Amino acid sequence: MIETAFTPWASLAGGALIGIASILLMLFIGRIMGATGILAGFFQPSSASDFAWRAALLAGMVTGPAIVWLVSGEMPAVETPMSTAALVVGGLIVGVGVTLGSGCTSGHGVCGMARLSPRSIVATLTFMASTFATVFIIRHMIGA
C-alpha cells in the first residue's frame, strides 16, 4: 500500500509562498500566476520584458532544491511510489487536461478562485474530483 506523508508545516509554508508569489505577480506585473501559461509564454514571449519575468519566475521554481541544500546542507529527498513510465503517462494526461481546461491548478485553483471566477471554480472542482477518483481507483480497485 502507498503511504502518504503528512507534512502540515511544510505544506502550509509552501502554500503561503505560492500565495505571496501570486499576489506579488498580480500587484507588480498584472499577470496571473498559472505555471503552464508562464511556461508556454516563456517559449513564445511577446516582448523582452515578458520573457524576463517568465524566466525569473521559472528559475525560482527550479532552484528551490538548491536553496534547501544551501540552508540545510542536504538535498531534499524526492521519492515517488510510481515508475518512471507511470510518471510520464501521468504527465501527458495532465498536459492534455491543462490544454482542455485552459489552465492548470495554480492558475485556476489559486488565482482564479481567489478572483471568484466561475470558470476557475468549475475547473478546480473538476481537477479535485478527477484526483479523488484516480487515487481511489489506484489504491482501492487496482491495488497499486
Structural key phrases:
7 helices
Give the number of domains: 1
Beta-strand fraction estimate: under 5%
Q: Which structural class do the helices and strands define?
A: mainly alpha
Query: What's the count of strands?
Result: 0
Shape: globular
**How many helices in DSSP terms?**
7
Poorly predicted regions: none
The largest sheet is: none
Average pLDDT reading: 87
- Radius of gyration over alpha carbons? 17 Å
Distance between the termini: 7 Å
Order of helices and strands: HHHHHHH
Give the oligomeric state of the chains in this entry, treating copies of one chain as homo and distinct chains as hetero.
single chain
**Percent helix among the residues?**
over 70%
TL;DR of this structure?
It contains 7 helices and no strands. With 144 residues, it is mostly helical.
Descriptive notes:
The protein has 144 residues and is mainly α. It has one domain. 74% of the residues lie in helices and 0% in strands. Helix 2 packs across helix 3 and helix 6 crosses helix 7. 12% of the residues are buried. The mean pLDDT is 87. Keywords: Cell inner membrane, Cell membrane, Membrane, Transmembrane, Transmembrane helix, Transport. Pfam families: Sulf_transp. It is a multi-pass membrane protein. This is YeeE/YedE family protein.
